Amino acid sequence: MPHVVVLTGAGISAESGISTFRDNNGLWASHRLEDVATPEAWERDPEGVLAFYNERRREVRRAQPNAAHEALARLERHNCRVSIVTQNIDDLHERAGSRDVLHLHGDIGKARSSVDPRLLYRLRGEETIEIGHMCDHNYQLRPHVVWFGEQVLLYDTACHIMADADWVLVIGTSLSVMPAAALLDEAPAHVTRMVIDPDAVALARGTDAIPMAGKASEIVPELVEHFIAHRVFEQPARGQ
Ligand code: NAD
What number does the ligand 1 atom closest to the CA of 108 have? Predict the structure, then answer.
């Protein structure tokens, strides 16, 4: 069964009302990343960092998956295996119905121990993380997100997924955060790569990826319908 690997970023959730980082009205226009998304910020101002992520979590809970998330979930039912590797910390892929989702940069719906990254806790309903909320080993809880300067613990797993791809779709990511951007090089050289983003032409320049410029909510459903209507994944995959 052909394996479609989808690398997504903040752009796929933009039309669900979740701010991206780098667009004109993105989060970095109103917050300095050094103040909220680094281990140094956590050392200096844990209340400020918790408040920032509590607000991001509220934003995610209010949001709904859009047509792009839903189309990717639909694709799973049509003769292919779909793995989503997302840089997003929201859960809109899962809420749309995608079953194989790897969160490279964490999940805002979880808290983790500030000492042991393996100690994870699902936050329910309107739950927030506040100073004094402790893990089972009595250390302060923090958001389960990877901050700038921290190790991406799931990177090797993501590399293995990429290495097994027959098709790669890149949706709504500026590919400017490492090491996520380097993941594309892990896909076998012969696989078809497509970039779906308003800036797709610039992002694909100098690569062999096919740019599809536009909004994810418009392009992804059209592409998925095309794949299904033309039975693209019923054709033999590599080596067959
Ligand atoms: P980014 O802000 O660097 O880039 C966003 C990309 O999305 C841009 O290329 C932009 O042209 C594109 N875009 C904007 N609107 C779009 C639309 N309607 N359809 C398709 N594409 C659209 O984001 P990034 O590359 O994901 O990387 C930065 C980091 O941002 C990641 O580490 C991620 O954890 C974090 N982040 C996540 C969320 C979220 O979970 N939803 C939100 C903001 C930031």
Answer: 40
Q: Whole-model pTM?
A: 0.93
Ligand 1 atom closest to residue 18's alpha carbon, by position in its atom list? 41
The answer to whether the beta carbons of residues 76 and 99 sit under 8 Å apart is yes
Catalytic residues: 105
Omega prior to 179 cis, within 30 of 0: yes
The values of phi and psi at residue 60, to 5°, are -65, -40
Q: Ligand 1 within 6 A of 198 CB? A: yes
Ligand 1 atom 14: residue of nearest CA:
11
What are the pLDDT tens digits along the chain (240 aa)? 899 999 999 999 999 999 887 666 666 667 788 889 999 999 999 999 999 999 999 999 999 999 999 999 999 988 899 999 999 999 999 999 999 999 999 999 999 999 998 899 999 989 999 999 999 999 999 999 999 999 998 999 999 999 999 999 999 999 887 777 789 999 999 999 999 999 999 999 989 999 999 999 999 999 999 999 988 887 655 554
Pocket test for ligand 1, best of 21, 196, 199 (most atoms within 8 A of CB): 21
